[in-house]
Amino acid sequence: MSLNPHPRVRIAAIRFLNPAPLMWDFDHPPLSATLTDRYKIDWMMPAECADRLANGTADIGLIPIAALATTPGLRILPGCTIASKGRVRSLLLVRRASQPIGTLRSVAADTASRTTIAYSRILFHKWGNPQVPFLPMAADLDTMLDRADAAILIGDPALLALEECANRFERTGEELVYHDLAEEWHTQTGLAFVSAVWGAAPAPGEPLDEQIVEDFLRSRDHGLQNIEALAVEWSGKLPISEQTIRTYLDANIHYILDEECLEGMRGFFRLAAECGVLPEYSFSVGHNEGRVVAELAR
Question: Which domain holds residue 285?
Answer without folding.
Answer: 9-84+192-296
